[in-house]
Specification:
Strand 10 and strand 11 (346-347) form a beta hairpin. Helix 3 runs parallel beside helix 14 (313-332). By secondary structure, the protein is α/β, with parallel strands linked by helices. The chain starts with a helix and ends with a helix. The chain is globular. It has helices at residues 3-30, 41-44, 60-67, 85-98, 119-133, 143-146, 164-172, 197-205, 220-233, 242-245, 251-260, 272-281, 283-292, 313-332, 353-367; strands at residues 47-54, 70-75, 103-106, 138-140, 177-179, 239-241, 265-267, 297-298, 303-305, 336-337, 346-347. The structure holds zinc ion. Zinc ion binds next to strand 1.
Length: 371
Amino acid sequence: MTHFEYFVKKIILLAIISFLVIGQGCLQKKKPKSEFCSEDDFKKMDKVDIHCHVNTKDTVFMNQAVEDNFRILSINTDAPLDVDYMEQQDIANFQRKAFPGHIEYLTTFSMKGWGEDGWLEKTIAYIKESMEKGAIGVKVWKNIGMVERDKDSSFIMLDNPGFDPLFDYLEENNIPVCGHLGEPKNCWLPIDEMTVNNDKEYYKEYPQFHMYLHPGFPSYEEQINARDRMLEKHPGLKFMGAHLGSLEWSVDELAKFFDKFPNATVDMAARICHLQLQAQSDWQKVHDFFIKYQDRIIYGTDMGDYLGASKEPEKLIKKTHTTWVNDWKFLTTDEVMSVKEINGEFKGLKLPREVVEKIYYKNAEKMFPGI
Ligand SMILES: [Zn+2]
């Protein structure tokens, strides 16, 4: 073979390879992902559950999360749980080591010593230390507004000026905040006027938390207004309202909240049934709400391992997996479904893939970049 022939053959070979590579690229472009998600995509999509509580070193829940392709945000809470908020942080860091890339956590703080010298400094120091240990944000809980009282025995609300330097600190340092303020509106209604079965059962069992029976406590509106006044004071704060921002009963109210606070997002944790209920009477409205506010809603469940859940591992696995699959079905298909939380049937929202990806991980990654 002459030098020239060799050169020509090489050129032809290169042309064939380029043709194949480009051709394959074109073929791939011709097969875009379908507009809607399939059942298979549940496993394939790298999802986030933004509102969980993993308060044990047991691995049952986390194994299921890995199995179902979920990254978990475990939210530390200063609630009367079996482990206090500081131990919750140690557990979260244990789980981060055991399941790297699959779990992160939010820290929180205690109201103990509120009004005394040093509370603020101590609180900020604890948050700073937590962030250094690996926390990716802070949780504020409903004890503010519903439990904690000031020296004059009035309830400490979220817009209390005593919190201003704390929220200034979080705002200035771009530390995201998840706020569970107030309760579902049902909590302030008599049992027979409540809209979902799980609220009826819960407040029947725990009358001490049923605000309808405790008129001396701040009203539903007072909880929401205090939260909103705090947000008005801190327009740069990255804020995620837990449990649909306690505005679960009306997508119209949620829309107003989003319009008023352009930085705010909400998680869906333990309130998806309220959306299903609204979809029962006006499917189009709920569907269009998701489309319009697709950048502001984050998937979450409030599940995890707390109050001894992993002592019954099979039950925990079943509940966790079933909830994740049913919620996926509601958001991605238009199947007619029913759940125990509400009476009667409703139709799935069948949201476009683009919206599903935002709700299941893109918005979470924007809100909490460490996830
Ligand atoms: Zn929770």
